[in-house]
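Notes from hallway chat w/ T.B., transcribed later so I don't forget. T.B. wanted the structure written out for a chain they're using in a teaching module, and asked if we could keep both sequence and structure tokens in one place. Agreed to drop them here.
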Amino acid sequence: MKPFHFALFGLAFGAATLPAVVAAQTPPAPASGRVLIATCTGCHGQNGKSAGAIPTLAGQTEAQIRQAMLDYKNDRRPATIMSRHAKGFSDDEIGAIAREIAATWR
């Protein structure tokens, strides 16, 4: 027997609607590292080679980038902008960012 609230939902919206509602509440898959680093060049320069006071990311290891991002995210490393950016990423996304930068920005 269906729980009462599901039975009411099925009567009100049709039984076929329930899977669509559940699917809509499933969190999206994390974006790829390539997608996530697309905006980094705005500050860190093309291919991570900064021309100014912003740190160059090209040539850094995955571990260095991951640790820096986690430090920004957890307020262990002071920053004006990066701590705000880092707080918007999950730890898995930070890992994807670090892998992509280390692999492609040399």
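Follow-up for T.B.: The mean pLDDT is 84. Might be a good example for the class.
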